[in-house]
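User: Sequence in, structure out. Go.
Assistant: Echoing your sequence, followed by the structure tokens.
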Amino acid sequence: MSLTSYRAAPSRVKTLITMPVGLVITATRWSRREAYIGVYWLSSTPKRPGMTLFDTYTGSPPCLPLLPVLSAYCLLPFPSDHLEFAHEIEAIGPHRAAGHRNLPWHHDWGSQNTEAEGHAQIDLALEAGVNFMDTAELYAVPGSAQTSGRTEEIIGNWFANSGKRDQWILASKIGGGGNSFIRNGARPDGASIRIALEQSLKRLKTDRIELYQIHWASRGSYNFDGSWTYAPHKQDTADVLDNIGDMLETPGALVKEGKIAHAGVSNETTLGISQWLAIAAARNLPRLVSVQNEYNLLRRHFDLDTAELSHHEQVGLLAYSPLAGGLLTGKYFDGAVPPGSRADYQKAFWRLNPYSEAAAKEYVALARDHGLDPAQLAIAFALTRPFMTSVIIGATSTTQLANAIGAANLTLSPDVLTAIEAIHRRWPRTI
């Protein structure tokens, strides 16, 4: 994989071909409106080297249009030493599979990893063609007054030392509330989004973040470990809508100021995403371009109503935890807790239960029966999904990172995909 890239809306794409210097996406339909959706306007922000923005498909290389991700529908080859974004959206750099070979990269250094180890991973990822980093003000995990914000500082130091900020598409997030060490646990609102964004910019040593996201819905959701206790009937509808409207106003201003390019959400529901979109449309505010939810062989909640919304509203999924926190590698089977692993470091692993372990064992056995690496099978499967913008990979070591990146070049056979669906029918909801 020489270059990771954005995934265009699946319903608009005719072909997407991996090339030595990038990707080619051929659009099936174009209009002036479509081409400009999500484009980073040259009139408000200076163009960086090597990129030309188009509103129509006018030819083939060497022209260099980057009208990426969800709403922009053309991505032509561009040299990896001239990274630019237009709609970059969380189609985020490093993750995906079949059909589109791009994988996003998630960073969480500063607690379980040292700064030197983090910088070594950045160097490795960049050399491999990865060009998208996702982080958050909460990281490193588990969040604390001592560690939160540290991951952004490590990334910022790498930017300052290397001078290669423009080779990365950068995403970060504001916490969703509930952590006493972040703004006393208050939920996000318009004012706190600006405060958090300014603090992240300072730690990251940059003047812009391409994708800025709400890390989780403060009203609650079925993400994380809430799948069995989610109680939406307890929510106050008026309060939920007022909060979303208030939060949306600030990203609108930040886009105009050039401090962010796009807004996204994370750990959201179909209802939540639809309300963000409706309120933005009614007030002429920035439209969500992505949702970052967990998606893996053990947790496929997105397959149903959220996939439908993604298709019709062009809000792509940036899937995190494609390995279910490492469970799908097999390393936690039968009570094993490898030294230095997440379960060892955090002294807990909520994804592991008798049902998830039984299902994971079947997926690992399937991979081995076909001569595949279990981790790469899991990532490659996520990349096959039609709603997938990108699959976010996370790694503790450079060895893990290199293996995960390799999944972008793996095409799963029809037999493997059929077997995956058979296992899923037996174990449809284990987490």
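User: And one key feature?
Assistant: Residues 18 and 24 are 7 Å apart (CA to CA).
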